[in-house]
Queue: 2 jobs
Job 1
Amino acid sequence: MTSPNLSIISARPTSTAGLMAQTGLNEDVLFELVHRFYGKVRQDRLLAPIFEERISNWAPHLERMVAFWSSVALMTGRYHGRPIPAHVPLPVNAVHFERWLALFRETAGEVCTPAGAAHVIERAERIAQSLQTAVLEASAGPGAMSVPD
Ligand code: HEM
């Protein structure tokens, strides 16, 4: 066992320290959460093919996802990317998002304190909803969701 990484690399160190204290989350917990979660995803019959077709080198994806969760859960500002365009072309619907969330909730319960799990699950649900809306709007075609004149 390595000792927990309690150093704070954050664009907003005071907010990050407060969130860490409230939730028990830190970079080590988020590393474990992400690695365990994608371990499950890669065993999942519904989700695995979608990932395996697009990700040939998992190390940079996992590193990006730890940075993403660090930004989302601890406000560190470590992630710089655009999740929506990455998901719009994927062959996914509500069933895929529900499975993704089920695996995420399960993993969060295994890895985080109850407060930490509640914190990341609440954010995952919100982001999944907005990604799903973006995928649906894109598949409905250009202008399908726009307000008529
Ligand atoms: C149906 C469920 C989902 C599937 C199948 C899925 C699949 C993928 C795939 C294949 C990529 C890699 C895209 C690429 O590099 O070409 C990706 C990237 C990513 N996903 Fe998901 N995803 C799902 C849901 C989510 C949710 C709910 C979140 C957030 C809570 C999320 C966050 C991200 C982020 C941050 C990236 C990196 C985007 C970037 O910076 O390039 N995904 N996802």
Job 2
Amino acid sequence: MTSLILYGAEPSPFVRKVRLALAFKQLDYELIQVFPFNPEKPQAFIDNSPTGQIPLLAFGDDYITDSSVILNFLEREYPEPALLPKDNIAAARAMWFAEYASSKMVAALGGHLFAEMYLARAFFNREPLQSDIDLALNEEIPEIFTYLETQLNSNYLVAEQFTLADLVVGGMLVLLKHCKVKCDANKWPKVAAYIDRVHALPIFTKIIDEETEILRSYGLDI
Ligand SMILES: N[C@@H](CCC(=O)N[C@@H](CS)C(=O)NCC(=O)O)C(=O)O
């Protein structure tokens, strides 16, 4: 079987997205630690990540950049178990939620909340921007919860089955867990139950436990 090497670091939500997909498809891989802001990087990463961003996946001698492209590749190369439903409209809906999570959700939960709460001091050597944290908590996250509440009509986001949508949305919601931010079940009952349901799945419990341990080892109060 062709070897898989993932270049990246656990705190990245885009790396988590790929790790969850690899776990879902039960694929073994090696994780080579790359922190984008650390100038010391493996030569293979420097040569094959044109943007310098993580994650980067090596599939044998080939390199694939960008988490969405990597997930698309994994779905084509390893079709079972499937992340996309067979129905084209359901598949498009799953891809939409993955896109929403990778843009709108990551900006709020990753950029404004997690990065400011934890990474600012530990990695960027500066004080957190409280205005960004407040924006995320008071405006952006409630808006995301309200949207998701309107979209949840079964246990999962699309086609009453676990899909790409739940993998990526659930993956981004792990940022809230790390930040100890809970969804108010009185305001958003479906979302609160959904978060508990998805995060109780074995691929999520494993990654949440691993990340918690790693982030604590960096000195973060997770
Ligand atoms: N669209 C990219 C975004 C990846 C991304 O933004 N990675 C961040 C870490 S979470 C990074 O490498 N940042 C460093 C930089 O932008 O120079 C993907 O989905 O893989």
